[in-house]
Amino acid sequence: MIAGAFGYYNYKFSQFKFFNFKDNIFYQKRDIFVPKDEKYTVLIYSSNMNDAKKLIKKIKTNKKILAIDLYQQRFVTKDNTIFLTSGMNTILKLIQQFNIYNVPVVFDIKKFNKVQYKQDSKIMGI
Question: Of 9, 70, 71, 82, whose CB is crowded by the most CB atoms within 10 A?
Answer without folding.
Answer: 70
